[in-house]
Amino acid sequence: MRQSQSFIPTLREVPADAEVKSHQLLLRAGFIRQSASGVYTFLPLGQRVLQKVEAIIREEMNRAGAIELLMPALQPAELWQQSGRWYSYGPELMRLKDRHERDFALGPTHEEMITVLVRDEVKTYKRLPLTLYQIQVKFRDEKRPRFGLLRGREFIMKDAYSFHTSQESLDETYKKMYEAYSNIFRRCGLNFRAVIADSGAIGGKDTHEFMVLSDIGEDTIAYSDASDYAANIEMAPVITTYEKSDEPLRDLEKVHTPGQKTIEQVASYLQVTPEKCIKSLLFKVDDRYVLVLVRGDHEANDVKVKNLFDASIVELATPEETKQVMNCEIGSLGPIGVGEAVTVVADHAVKAIVNGVCGANEEGYHYIGVNPERDFTVAQYADLRFIQEGDPSPDGKGTIRFARGIEVGHVFKLGTKYSEAMNAVYLDENGRSQTMIMGCYGIGVSRLVAAIAEQFADENGLVWPAAVAPFDVHLISVNAKNDEQRQLADEWYEKLGQAGLEVLYDDRPERAGVKFADSDLIGIPIRVTVGKRASEGIVEVKVRQTGETMEVSVNELIDTIRRLLQ
Ligand code: 9G3
């Protein structure tokens, strides 16, 4: 492609509201433009990268035995009403009415649609297992779209769904998909980890997230420093056991703690350590209230609370709800004297507290000399806290460290959650009707483009790995007015193309400085510069990622480029 006839609107200045480098650079290098909050246009260079990423995904999906189809984005509300999700999802599910006032959803995912499709077409075990996938636009009305393509409201996903007659068959496909994902992310040059994840609302038990390590990642990964254990922090179980000190029990006593609200304030006011304090948090779990107790130096894990109650919605109670339910402010909550209306559960660490401190459920008062089981009882002790750095790794090997990650893939063993809801059954070899067992597997394709940009960008601009770069070679003629240089550049633009290389040719009548700056910004892996030594048939070759530069005779140019692209 000749740049003088292309559409690559690069920008000098850094866009104000772009906070992370991939977002800034994809805008500045003319790869994307925002058309609304969380809604983007892929300009020609961005579209070429997207196609390269999709090609890798297709290759690996097809190799894993998945079959591509394409479903509509427009989904009849009836599907979502049948699965119940029309009612359980809130404003995130984008809804609209057609001209006949019929309800539709703009698909955020396609479990219902694919399950109904397979239900209606597959009636016998002979047609299973079956794995279908699509690469398609998705809509999720995020409350806070951010970081450009990393969290958009319209984005491209590869979503695959598998249908089985047995758990073993599902396990086999899950393993194939897991390997396909590893191949995809490795071929994109990414530094990723597969982490044990929480299945959340999607149901099923096994589930893994594929995380690209990045400081701007929204997810925290808990990984072991002595094994390959890695889990999403929401999921990572805590195996710590707690010794109960043998100090003599003191009497329970209510003390005045004016204005002391946080654990730190109360602990320092009462001259105790946070480990002696009981932190009480009121959660709304579906339609009931639960008081969750954790030790003062720990954090309550809402996902573990949700899984304990198998709930679909878990949120911290608002200050108003807290006042109404507990008759006091959040800073004075405690487990002593809590009414029947509130279920009290506690993390295991709380049970080992002796002569502790907790809120008195009275403004400005706390209890000291608090002893669990003597002064209050709980419905259940469970693992309800977030794992912390330094905790023992759940696999018993080494200790936990934290890293931040961008979730680019997620694979689930769904079980029969959707096949039951949509009545997807088949006749088994004995002619008996059985419910299909399912798996589902997602990759954030447009998010992947941003994650690659984020991982490889440097201070001069984007840096694309060869496998996903918009072009193989950026050919630059330094001085378009110099006939000799321009002719040599024109000649090798043709020859490189004939050799099967994809070439972006900067033939614009711009100053060399502008061309080099744009070339660094765009990040094509190999730059060929036709300059002063054109008359000797010598050009300069530069590797974008390493900065390595060499003078090459045009006779060796194609071989040199091919070698460098490996
Ligand atoms: C919704 C809305 C947002 C959602 C979902 C449904 C996430 C929803 C989870 C999944 C699970 C898998 C198939 C590909 C891999 C991921 N956000 N999820 O189900 F209605 Cl508004 O999408 N789906």
From TrEMBL:
- One of the GO BP terms on file: prolyl-tRNA aminoacylation
Q: What protein does this entry describe?
A: Proline--tRNA ligase
This protein's assembly is summarised as:
Homodimer.
**Gene Ontology cellular component list:** cytosol
Catalytic function, reaction form: tRNA(Pro) + L-proline + ATP = L-prolyl-tRNA(Pro) + AMP + diphosphate
Its biological purpose: Catalyzes the attachment of proline to tRNA(Pro) in a two-step reaction: proline is first activated by ATP to form Pro-AMP and then transferred to the acceptor end of tRNA(Pro). As ProRS can inadvertently accommodate and process non-cognate amino acids such as alanine and cysteine, to avoid such errors it has two additional distinct editing activities against alanine. One activity is designated as 'pretransfer' editing and involves the tRNA(Pro)-independent hydrolysis of activated Ala-AMP.
- Organism whose genome encodes this protein: Parageobacillus caldoxylosilyticus NBRC 107762
Q: Does the keyword Cytoplasm belong to this entry? A: yes
Major enzyme class? ligase
